[in-house]
């Protein structure tokens, strides 16, 4: 059976300062903020979404900025690096823009990665993506350099066996191995179709905090596809949550053997569900159950615009 997974849907991380986070992702990286809302479970904390012009699945980086959260400690059992795709020939532009030095360039699987840190020490890389048909958001960055979306994510695990097996079950195929890293790719994916597993048997466990990835979400088209994936994963013995309405998609979550939290999210209904496409991310949007808190939240939440 082939499960209907298309690659990544979004990556969600933790930040310490909403304004710095917004400035970095919309200013420096040139993504579009496609939604400004709050954490469903902690409505006094923002949930900020950045992506391409529409917030297309496979392009969406999201953050929970918890003011003064302690910095995370890198280690195993987490996403070690989130990788964005940029157009062929644009790494020089990005090296200049990020003020990067040569030491931040690395070669992996024959591709040049430009590594850089986010505002909380978040570990990112840009990689040129030849023949990538996606289009980035060009308000701040020219079209021939704009971030196209994710290329994928690299997991750091003590033991990659069971998680690799899970990825294969989810439709990923082993593409290559280089040193301690095995590259998995989902055929026919949305462009955000690579997962690398780096195995570090002796490394310490990560401690989640500011700059850490909280979870990664995989894309399925709709709720029917999500049900198929949910049932298949649950039938292999995983504890999977029931589908949860996240306003812009439906989500199910499960913890993987290596420790990383996975989500499977629907592409529908999308970010234009409650805002016109021309105005995505501008107004504070609240989940229905938190709408009664609007006055208090508008006072409490730090303004994020400069
Ligand atoms: Zn999520």
Q: What would the CATH topology be?
A: 2,3-Dihydroxybiphenyl 1,2-Dioxygenase, domain 1
As residue ranges, the low-confidence spans are none
The helix/strand order is EHEEEEHEEEEHEEEEHEEEH
Q: Provide the β-strand percentage band.
A: 25-35%
Structural class: alpha+beta
For the termini, the CA-CA separation is 50 Å
Shape: globular
The overall number of domains is: 1
Determine the fraction of residues in helical runs and give it as a percent range.
10-25%
What is the overall pLDDT average? 96
Q: How are strands sequenced across the largest beta sheet?
A: 2-3-4-1-13-16-15-14
Radius of gyration: 18 Å
Count of alpha/pi helices: 5
CATH superfamily: 2,3-Dihydroxybiphenyl 1,2-Dioxygenase, domain 1
Major β-sheet profile: 8 strands, mixed
Q: What would you say this structure looks like, in words?
A:
The chain is of the alpha+beta class and about 300 residues long. It has one domain: 2,3-Dihydroxybiphenyl 1,2-Dioxygenase, domain 1 (Roll), CATH 3.10.180.10. It has helices spanning about 20-30, 90-100, 160-170, 225-235, 295-300, and strands at about 10-15, 30-40, 45-50, 60-65, 80-85, 105-110, 110-115, 125-130, 150-155, 175-180, 180-185, 195-200, 215-220, 245, 250-255, 260-270. It is globular and about 55 Å long. The N and C termini lie far apart (about 50 Å). About 45% of the residues are buried. The model has no long low-confidence stretch (mean pLDDT about 95). Bound molecules: zinc ion.
């Amino acid at each position: 059976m082939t499960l209907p997974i298309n690659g990544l849907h979004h990556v969600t991380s933790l930040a310490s300062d909403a304004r710095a986070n917004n400035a970095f992702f919309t200013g420096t990286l040139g993504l579009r903020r496609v939604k400004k809302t709050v954490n469903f479970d902690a409505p006094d904390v923002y949930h900020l979404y950045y992506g391409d012009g529409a917030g297309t699945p496979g392009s969406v980086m999201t953050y929970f900025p918890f003011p003064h959260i302690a910095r995370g400690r890198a280690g195993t059992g987490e996403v070690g690096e989130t990788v964005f795709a940029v157009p062929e020939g644009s790494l020089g532009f990005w090296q200049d823009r990020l003020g990067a030095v040569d030491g931040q360039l690395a070669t992996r699987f024959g591709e040049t990665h430009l590594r850089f840190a986010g505002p909380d020490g978040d570990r990112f890389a840009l990689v040129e993506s030849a023949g990538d048909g996606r289009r980035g958001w060009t308000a701040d960055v020219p079209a021939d350099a704009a971030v196209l979306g994710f290329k994928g994510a690299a997991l750091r695990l003590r033991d990659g066996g069971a998680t690799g097996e899970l990825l294969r079950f989810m439709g990923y195929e082993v593409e290559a191995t280089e040193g301690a890293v095995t590259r998995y790719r989902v055929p026919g994916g949305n462009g955000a179709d690579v997962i690398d597993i780096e195995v570090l048997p002796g490394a310490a466990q990560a401690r989640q905090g500011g700059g850490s990835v909280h979870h990664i979400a995989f894309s399925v088209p709709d709720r029917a596809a999500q049900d198929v994936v949910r049932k298949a994963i649950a039938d292999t013995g995983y504890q999977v949550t029931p589908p949860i309405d996240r306003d812009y998609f439906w989500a199910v979550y499960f913890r993987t053997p290596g420790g990383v939290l996975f989500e499977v999210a629907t592409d529908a209904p999308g970010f234009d569900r409650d805002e016109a496409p021309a105005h995505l991310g501008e107004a504070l949007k609240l989940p229905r159950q938190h709408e009664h808190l609007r006055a208090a939240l508008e006072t409490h939440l730090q303004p994020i615009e400069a």
